[in-house]
Design a protein that fits this description.
Elements (H helix, E strand, L loop, with lengths): L2 H13 L12 E6 L6 E9 L2 E10 L2 H14 L4 H5 L3 H8 L4 H22 L6 H5 L1
The structure holds FE2/S2 (inorganic) cluster (FES).
The site of FE2/S2 (inorganic) cluster has 9 residues, from helix 2 and helix 5.
């Protein structure tokens, strides 16, 4: 797909986000922000066994951070926790179809960083190196 189609996809997800809202009594939730710009996100997870059964998010931010959160929450629903733990910046690049570049990388990875952080929290594990890098 040409680049502008991918950009349109992000904008469309930003304007009409999927999975926006709260989960009542989530298995775990985590709030994170991007200290540079103040954008923030809270991710709510419903976990059954080793699967992410449902995921929702709330937050305020730029089109890339919120559009990516919408696309990522669609993508990870139903996946195993270990699959999600292995996701990194490359996962995001493939998902959104572009390299956000150094200026926007923190925008593009805010949702994944928060999601992975919430799964580590749920399992009482320390975030791994690839999550700390995001
Ligand atoms: Fe803040 Fe994008 S400008 S996350």
């Amino acid at each position: 797909m040409p680049l502008d189609i991918y950009a349109e996809e992000i904008i469309s997800n930003y304007e009409h986000p999927h999975n926006k809202g709260k989960i009542d009594s989530p298995s775990v939730k985590l709030h994170e922000n991007n200290p540079v710009c103040g954008d923030d996100i809270t991710i709510y997870c419903a976990i059954k066994g080793d699967r992410l059964e449902d995921v929702k998010f709330e937050g305020d931010g730029c089109a890339i951070s919120m559009g990516t959160a919408s696309m990522l929450t669609d993508f990870v629903k139903g996946k195993s926790l270990s699959e999600i733990e292995r996701m990194d910046l490359n996962t995001i690049k493939e998902l959104i179809g572009m390299d956000p570049g150094p200026a926007r990388v923190k925008c593009a990875t805010l949702a994944l960083k928060t999601l992975k952080g919430s799964l580590f929290l749920y399992q009482h594990k320390e975030p791994d190196a690839s999550t700390k890098e995001l």
